[in-house]
Amino acid sequence: MEFKKGHKIKVKGSDEFLTVIGKLGEGGQGIVYRVKYNGCEYALKWFFQQSLKNPQAFLKNLCQNIADGAPARSFLWPILVTEQTEGSFGYLMALRPPEYKSFTDILNAKVRIVKHSARVNAALMIVESFLSLHRQGKSYQDLNDGNFFINPENGDVLICDNDNVAPYGVNLGIAGKCRYMAPEVVMGEKPGMQSDYFSLAVILFLLLFLSHPLEGEKVVKSVCLTDEHEKKHYGSNPVFIFDPKDNSNKPVRGVHNNAIDLWPLYPQFIQEAFIRSFTDGIKSNEKRVSDSEWLRLFIRLRDEIITCGCGCENFASSAKAGDSDELHCLSCGAKMVRPLRLNVQRYSVALYPGNRIYACHTVESSMDFRTETGRVVRSKNHPNLWGIRNLSETSWQAEMPDGSKKVVAPNAVLPIFKNIKVSFGNVSDAKIV
Ligand SMILES: [Zn+2]
Question: What is the pTM of this model?
Answer without folding.
Answer: 0.93
